[in-house]
Records
---
Amino acid sequence: MGGKQLVVLLSIVFLMQACDSEETKTAVEQNEYMVSLLAARHSQVKPAEITYYFNEKRAAVLDSMRQFKKDNFQEYVSFSYWYIREVLNSGFTEKAIEEVDRFNAEISGAGQKLDQQWNYFFKRLEALSYIRLGEQQNCLINHTSASCILPITDNGVHQLKLGSQSAIDIIEPLLVDYPDDLELVWLLNICYQTIGEYPQNVPSEYLIAPDAFEDNNSTLKAFVDLAPNLGIASKGISGGSIVEDLNNDGFLDIVASSSGVTEKDQLKIFFNNGDGTFSDQTVSSGVSGLFGGLNCMQTDYNNDGFVDLFILRGGWFGQWGQHPNSLLKNNGDGTFTDVTEKAGLLSFHPTQTAVWRDFNQDGWVDVFIGNETTAKGVIGRAARGKVHASEFYVNQKDGTFKNLAAEAGLEFEELIKGVTALDANNDGLDDIYISIMGGDNMLMINQGNLKFADQAKTLNLTEPFVSFSTGSMDYNNDGFDDLFVSAYTTSNNPLAHEVTFELQGNSPTAALPKLYRNNGDGSFTDVTETTGFLKSIYGMGFNYGDLDNDGYLDLYFGTGDPNFESIIPNRMFRNVEGNFFEEVSFAGGFSNIQKGHGISWGDMDNDGDHDIYITMGGAHEGDIYQNQLLVNPNENKSWINLHLTGTISNKKAIGARVHLVTSKGQHLYRTVSNGASFGGNSYALEIGLGDAQSIDLLEITWPVANSKQAFRNIPVNQSIEIVEANDEIVSRSRTSLDFFKGNDQMNHSEHE
């Protein structure tokens, strides 16, 4: 046998062994393989070349660099400022305060003096450090359900006032010289609220009027955060969330991710015990060591009826975000196995967004992944010149996928921050809307045979130019998929400045979101202004549900940006009969000023209405906060809980469309999905029915071939299951839970 023949033979043997090894690799080995991949990628990051995350390491680099700049006073000042800023970003707040004092003493002792601008910067940094100290001592360590929720009153007022009072003492003299700094005006008003002296002690020239923190709606009962009481208030930085029945026991469980790269950013899984409590099953579920994930979502990729998990990583990391995503197979026994490599989904691109649908109507869900390439000058370090094309994986029906992005016309090199599926032209095929930060958004129309074509420009759907999360829902219940696209700021002003500017009665100067109404004829109308969304919302996390069971979908936004100064309220907008949206952020207890990200709606306590789980925290290592479970106290409206099971279509009926006609003549439309692009609503349809006494008609359009089934005269206030091609309605047993029992929701204290 010749040398070349021997090499070929050995290569074949090696490949056969590798394939056999992959087939026989245990669940533990597959999970450990992903853990090792993540560790290797994280170890390669150069902290000085990334804007977010790795703050402690970056602080050490800056501290070392500034020591070499002592002979150049201006450079030493600059490096010292950014060093202390990174100390604060790392979470070492008291050290940041000490470093400011040490720096001031050092330059004073050397006979040096800061110019006016640098003095302003350092004073602001010192004030910000004290504000964060107050948050850590009160909102984190001595947390109550009212912590950080505007307007801050009663149990939300800080017990330890040193942080906020010290910040006030610094900010007020600064405002004498910089009265137009509306960000400082905002922070001053927040500080006075936290010490219980708002509005009476706020200097009149800086007072934001109390009615700015009020809503017109007074009938909505405030939701209550019970996450700390139930042991599900995991702390982390920005991340995703899912509420879903992971073990098919009839109760919604919780998945929460955190986008960092340390053990603090462990993926968390909480199982609902069905008795008003939850259990942390992170270790027993087999996901230990799986860190990171700016977003996460559920799917059922193998049609076994158990919900699998898809974790998206690397978003905002730029060239250092070449982290693998994770497809976690639900084994049906409370454990999960990382099958990313086995399924053919292993790739290394920064991303935070994807959408699962049966795009070719073959009964198996496919996935489009929007990766991050370039911000075209909007976010300078987003990709650093690296190309990360979007991916389109088509399900091969054998547990594997094939990337057909190029063939389908779905391979794009953009900074994609949100994707959603919708039937834009009402032809029964799922299309894809792509939200791009710093470019024209795209609407990829499904032409059949896995071919897509962009019609966004033709339909005037390219804005906003700097967009973020996006979602499709039928907001006006006319039977057609509408489209909401969040906007991020294009203003040169900080977020808190813009919020204050608008609260003072001015028109917004930052980018505005877009609400596009589907006209049912293949066209859309921009109804942003007429529906009440001419507001700078700065939505990062975004999802929708029905907060008052009136049958109309309401919108909730997690807000903010990476800066600690950007403590602005999360925003809730109530849908008023499909005509316009009224803000109920303050009345409903939704206005937490910590950073909000993955938002998931679902009936966590089985009482017939939507509750909300939201992951909190920012993009810096020290910007952590407790996740929230906002429990809905509103009652006295009818509802139906609908579980669909596909037989010809995919098992979880993802993409199925439901049309209800109530006894009151109200038409309601829903689609089985996990909601908008930054959150994971339950696949079970929890539909509010208003004052209806029964359902006259329930019509289902299944994803495969758009086959239809119709049912009539269905009682309300029950959970039912319908199986495709089966004319029987199965009633599901349902036990309501009392999360309030034994919990003093207003006085929870969590000491670390």
---
Amino acid sequence: MGGIFGTISKKSCVADLFYGTDYNSHLGTRRGGLATYSSEKGFVRSIHNLESSYFRTKFESTLNKFEGATSGIGVISDTDAQPLIMNSHLGRFAICTVAKIVNKDELTQLLLEKNMHFAEMSSGSTNPTELVALLIIQAKTFREGIENVFHHIKGSCTMMILTEDGIICARDSWGRTPIIIGKKEGAYAASSETTSFPNLDYETAYEVGPGEIVKIKADGMEQIRPANKKMQVCSFLWVYYGFPTSTYEGKNVEEARFTNGFNLAKTDDVEVDCCSGIPDSGTGMAMGYAAGKGVPYQRCIAKYTPTWPRSFTPSNQSMRSLVAKMKLIPNKAMLKGKRVLFCDDSIVRGTQLRDNVKVLFDQAGLKECHMRIACPPLVYGCPFINFTSSKSDMELITRRIIEKFEGDANKNLEKYATTGSPEYQRMVDEIASQLGLTSLKFNTIEQLVEAIGLPKCQVCTHCFDGSSAYTLDEFADED
């Protein structure tokens, strides 16, 4: 996915920029970048590969190159190298994005036909952030340029633009990914995660709306473009991506996860000895489930955090499996001979969970393994954000099972996505069988949306029900 952070201050911003960007590290592990501006040095940029190290480790020793900067932007990216520094008729600026552009090749060809050129290449293809920058400079103003991006791309794009006199923040036109504004005396900041704010003494001041464009300076904020009326914020911010202390649209991540588990427990008649979460995103749900069910919450699996990243991020399946195996350590003393109910955020491919369940039975002596999932089955691939490194819907365990049953992975998807239908139940039973589970239940869309606390029409649930396909071709303008 990726996360972005920006800050502008009446004094040095370097420490805030460094730590604020680092607080977005859970959103990606591939590349990190910082860009700053000062009247003495102008624009300064640094980008590092994070696949074998951490953001802090890579950047801490080189922070002196940014000395004197009073404004800057940073990014944790799972795709392209960024921020980029551009020089155009709009002036010099640095830009970073959280984006997935489904029609990237089509737009690349369109710009090439206009005699534009691309200097940045990501893994041999067009750098999405450079594509966004080139779409912006087609226009006469930053507002018109950002609107040009919104009108042309299919997918999503949230961005920050560092100029000589401020930071322009533009949220995706459907609001799928967030930008939140924070402030303290003499400084403003913007971030994908409110988690960046407390330890840097920022207070949450404003949530940028869908398609809204604002500009922050050290002494205030101005609106450049009003927010759109329609919103489709990604439900996976609460299910998986978000850090527990973060809040989006006024709804806290951990509170939503706890409520999700609590409500699910009230409708579940399984008998178990205890409840445990699959770290980290399953923990809050498990605590809620234990409270709702009236059973003990126990840490039957612990995550070894010092060296292992989130396992969805490596692009290589064997590396994902290795990370997933090495980072989770079962506690045999808490598992042997017990009936344990585990809570997890989702099931994507199923490979990690299958291997973990086998270990729990074969090595830890587990008696029964019951699994409860925070969201409905993932039946549709996500065209809006880089949810995983999946390249095909066939990487989803649901699609492989549908193909097994129907002979066509795209047949009767609506029936398989409908909770309680015969097709749905058959699919869930097959998933449980393939993963070696004693029982398996998924949350419903209705319960998930209730736990998040927003109207269904404002929450994107496309990966569960395919309901947001129309937004690829429809522009959510403010009218």
---
Amino acid sequence: MNRPLQYIAKIGQYPFYWPMNVTIIFLLFVFGTPYYQITFWVLALSFLVFAINNIYTANIADHQSNREKYKPRRVPKSRKAIYEEADLTDQEIHFFRSEMAEALDTIETILGYENYNTHLNMVFKRYDISKVLKSYFQAITQAPDRLNQATDFLYHVLPNLKGALEQYTAINQAMDKSPRKIQKLTNLREEIADLAQQAQSSFDSFTNDPE
């Protein structure tokens, strides 16, 4: 999926998207397409490239921004004291910041589904998912030497929660309203709720057991 988007985004870097537009004009002209249809397709596809390029670029910028926050070569002074207190080596700092950057990307993706529809919004609010994920993330960043105590949250809860939300939205977009679809959505909401409870339980354990 990313490769086609990258290709379209690359086209969007050219003035007037000329590689695409020249090709379209040539092909349509060869097939004897009327000028007004050629104009329509050029404008329509140019707008599509413009929109996709902006969305793709913004998305990449967000991910790069998250990774910049935890880039090992640019450790903020406020973080250095925490790493020194935890007695981490440079290699351990690099690993920790890389893992937290990945976790932050996943958390932001998850939170992007909060207002997808009323059903998901209710689940998010009932289990206070946004607060739990953000608080847990902050707690881990303040205790880098305890990363191993948060492995279940980082490598099980977060990726599975993201996956369940992606499945939910994909199934929900289907046009049919069959009982099977409704049951699948119900099952996924229950899975999301269960993962949210696991996150809360893991967070409580992490904060109540500082050593």
